[in-house]
Every structure is written in C-alpha cells, then in structure tokens.
C-alpha cells in the first residue's frame, strides 16, 4: 500500500479546464451528506483545492476540512509543524454514486517538506468490488525517525491526486471526469517525555481468536467518520443496501487487542450469481490511518470478512513494517467501515441485506501508555476516556469522538442518540430540552474530571 515509504516520483498530470471552477471553492453545503450518502463532518470547514504550493490552504491540527479533487492534476494543502511532534493527515475521497470505477481507481497522498523531500506516500483504491465508496489515504511526518529530511520545524505540504486505471483513462464517462469530494483531517501526536526503544515488539504466537457468538443487538451504523456509531465488545446487527458504507467506532486501550468479523446474510433463494469482493471491511486507527481490510465475494449464501489477527495496542508498534501492526500504535477510537458493492443489486436485488458485526476487545486489564511530553491535538485522540468506555459498554449513548473539527464530539455529540430516543417516547419539547441540557452538563463535568485524572496518570506512566 506504500505506507511509510518515501516515493521519489509522484505522477504528473495536466489540470483539466474544470479545475478553475473547482479551485474557487467547494460545495456550499459543507455539512450535508455528500455523494454516495457519505456523511461529511457538519463542523468541517470548506477549503479550496489549490493547484500550486503557494496557494495552498492551511490545515490546522484538530480541524476537519471539506474540499474537492479533480480528475487530473495535483491539489495542495499546507501544514505548519514543530520539530518534535509526529503529524498525521488523513484524506477521504468520495466518488459519486453510480460512477464507473476500476479496481485501481483511487487516490495518492504524499507529504513533503518545504524543499520538496518526501516524508511519506500512501495510496488507496476502490478495490475488487469495483464499486464507488469512500477511500482513505494518509500522510505522516514522523519526528526523530533518523532521516535527514522532514525533521525541521516549518511548512509542509500535503499533495493529493487521483489514481486512474487505463480503462478509466480511456473512458469519456462524465462520472469519472467529475470531481471527487474530499474530507481531510490533521492530528499531531506529542513527543515522549523520555526516549524509549525504537524497535517493534517481538512477534507473538497465539491461537486465532474465534468470533463472538450469541444473539445480536441492533446498532445502526453511521454514514461517515464523524457520525460513526460507537460499539464495544459484542455482536451487533444492522441492514445494508448495495452501494452504502456503514461506519462504527470502537474504543481500544493500551494493551488491548481488537478482533472484528463482518457477516453478510443470505439472499432470497431465487437469486444467483457471484459478485467479487462484494463485502468490504476496513479498519482505521484514531488518526484515520488505514490499518487493515478484508473482503468477501458474495454468491447469495451468508459470507464473512474478518480482519487479520491484530497485535495489542503498543506505542512501539509504529516501528513495525506491516500496516496491521504499525497502525495499532496508540490507544483511542478505532473506526470500522463496512461497504456492500453496488453490483450486488444487479444479481441479488436492492436489499436491504442483514449485516452482523462481531467485535471482540481482548485484554480487559488496561496497561499504562507512554509518557507524553504535552498534549496531543485534538485532545483525547490518542487515549480512551471514561466516557468512551461507558458508551462502548452500553453500545451507544451519544458518544462521538475521533479527529473532528469544531464542537467536540462530532455529529452525534451532545446526546444525539438520547435525543432520538426521547423524541420517540413522546416526551414534550420542554422536558426534552431540559433532559438534553442536563446530559450536556453531566458530560462536560465527566470530561473535565477525566482530563484531570489523565494528566495525573500520564505524569507517572513509563514509556510503553
């Protein structure tokens, strides 16, 4: 996938004539659901897609931004970094619904310093399902990684461009030539108080963990990172229609191990055929960095897609070569995205199809994390709070975390789930308002107490 590898060459391209209108701005409805039903962060700020570094708009750590990517050419965004922190930028591209896409159609994201040196490159594509879906690639500036470049404080640039297969390049389809909308986030991880080992932990040998059994609890998925539905260990169910992507999030603490399986239910007996890569399951860490993915072809009978055996969350995992190890580098909210290919509708109808998500979080006894020398941005991104643990245990409760901009909590913050339940129960508007305000006050107090406690613990914790 190209993660952590510096790439000396980025594909060139001539910016299409439509880019001029694109650079002038992005759609005005920056908080509305976009193409493919993707739920953009309603607090996201519009940011123009610049075609030169001199015109690049600033990405502030902790912010979420909405932009757009033309079919041809590069777009640039700017970061201002210090010399000690590690920075992460995640770019989610959303093709229009019904777009004709090939396996390798996707995006490339590179991070460069002010002298044009590559700090990292990464690619993401729609994959074997050949179905338009949100794809996420990322860039990083790793502090103190031993390289001569990308270590100084100053200006850095995020370079984003489309990847096109030969079949797409020869196509005159308006769906491909149209812009893909983007959601960008930036996060900064504070340095450690004391330097620790710079090698990955040894490989652990353990038996594969079987998926959880038992009855499923209904838990509707969200339509984007910002609105992802929180789940903890358990068996969860929802319905999924072809072309849609559901988002969930799972708090995973230091020393804990995550195991996830997605199961697609059977189709009606009179259906037949086979759709390659129909079910897709992807895992992203708290910085929205892609960690692992799994796919399953669908022929009408129930099918499962399971993530690889993932290691316990440890700071030192970042020094590993493989993505599924290096991505499990910090505690926090991990994201799950489940996609069902649009092509399933051609063989098996419009659905909806039953989805079962089996989530196991091993290692009940939390381990101490590294001693950070300062606060990361956004706050609470690289740790699990008491509020998150309670929400995961209940399978919801209005928690929404992760890398978001604007008001803390994202789309579901402030008791969004509770508001829906109260409204459905027929409680009057005055009672509902009092209940919501009381909930906000309680959450604010818990958040403040959790932050104070975390500060005291962090000062004593050794390096993980």
Structure keywords:
5-stranded mixed beta sheet, disordered C terminus, disordered N terminus, 464 residues, alpha+beta, 8 helices
Report on this model:
There is one protein chain. The chain is an alpha+beta fold and 464 residues long. The protein has eight helices and 20 strands. It has helices at residues 19-23, 166-170, 174-177, 323-326, 344-348, 386-394, 416-424, 429-460, and strands spanning 45-46, 57-58, 64-69, 74-81, 86-94, 106-113, 118-125, 135-141, 154-163, 180-189, 217-218, 229-230, 234-240, 245-252, 257-264, 275-284, 290-298, 303-306, 332-340, 353-362. The strands form four sheets. The chain has a five-stranded mixed beta sheet, with no helix packed on it.
List the helices and strands and how they pair.
Blueprint lengths: L18 H5 L21 E2 L10 E2 L5 E6 L4 E8 L4 E9 L11 E8 L4 E8 L9 E7 L12 E10 L2 H5 L3 H4 L2 E10 L27 E2 L10 E2 L3 E7 L4 E8 L4 E8 L10 E10 L5 E9 L4 E4 L16 H4 L5 E9 L3 H5 L4 E10 L23 H9 L21 H9 L4 H32 L4
Parallel strand pairs: 1-3, 2-4, 11-13, 12-14
Antiparallel strand pairs: 3-10, 4-9, 5-8, 5-10, 6-7, 6-9, 13-20, 14-19, 15-18, 15-20, 16-17, 16-19
């Amino acid at each position: 996938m190209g993660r952590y590898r510096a790439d000396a060459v980025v594909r060139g391209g001539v910016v299409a004539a439509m880019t001029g209108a694109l650079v002038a701005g992005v759609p005005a409805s920056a908080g509305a659901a976009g193409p493919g039903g993707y739920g953009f962060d309603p607090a996201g700020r519009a940011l123009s897609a610049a075609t030169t570094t001199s015109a690049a708009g600033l990405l502030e750590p902790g912010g979420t931004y909405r932009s757009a990517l033309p079919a041809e050419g590069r777009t640039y965004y700017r970061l201002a970094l210090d010399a000690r922190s590690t920075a992460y930028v995640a770019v989610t591209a959303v093709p229009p619904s019904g777009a004709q896409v090939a396996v390798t159609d996707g995006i490339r994201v590179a991070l460069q310093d002010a002298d044009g040196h590559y700090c990292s490159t990464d690619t993401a594509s729609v994959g074997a399902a050949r179905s338009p879906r949100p794809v996420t690639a990322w860039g990083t500036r790793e502090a103190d990684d031993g390289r001569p470049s990308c270590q100084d404080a100053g200006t850095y640039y995020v370079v984003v461009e489309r990847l096109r297969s030969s079949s797409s390049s020869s196509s005159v389809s308006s769906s491909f030539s149209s812009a893909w909308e983007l959601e960008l986030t930036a996060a900064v991880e504070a340095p450690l108080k004391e330097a620790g080992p710079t090698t990955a932990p040894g490989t652990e040998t353990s038996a594969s963990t079987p998926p959880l059994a038992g009855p499923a609890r209904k838990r509707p998925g969200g339509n984007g990172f910002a609105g992802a539905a929180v789940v903890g260990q358990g068996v969860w169910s929802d319905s999924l229609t072809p072309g849609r992507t559901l988002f969930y999030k799972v708090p995973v603490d230091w020393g804990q191990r995550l195991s996830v399986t997605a199961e697609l239910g059977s189709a009606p007996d009179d259906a037949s055929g086979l759709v390659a890569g129909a079910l897709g399951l992807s895992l992203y860490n708290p910085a929205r960095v892609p960690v692992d993915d799994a796919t399953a072809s669908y022929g009408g009978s129930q099918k499962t897609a399971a993530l690889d055996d993932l290691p316990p969350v440890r700071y030192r995992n970042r020094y590993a070569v493989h993505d599924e190890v290096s991505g499990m580098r910090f505690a926090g909210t991990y994201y799950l995205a489940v996609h069902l290919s649009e092509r399933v509708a051609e063989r098996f109808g419009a659905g909806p199809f039953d989805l079962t998500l089996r989530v196991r979080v091993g290692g009940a006894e939390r381990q101490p994390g590294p001693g950070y020398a300062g606060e990361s941005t956004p706050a609470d991104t690289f740790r699990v709070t008491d509020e998150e643990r309670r929400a995961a245990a209940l399978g919801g409760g209005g928690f929404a975390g992760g890398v978001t901009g604007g008001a803390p909590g994202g789309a579901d913050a402030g008791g969004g789930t509770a508001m829906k339940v109260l409204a459905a129960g027929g409680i009057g508007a005055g009672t509902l308002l009092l209940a919501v305000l009381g909930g906000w006050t309680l959450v604010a107090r818990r958040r403040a107490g959790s932050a104070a406690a975390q500060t005291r613990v962090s000062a004593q914790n050794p390096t993980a």
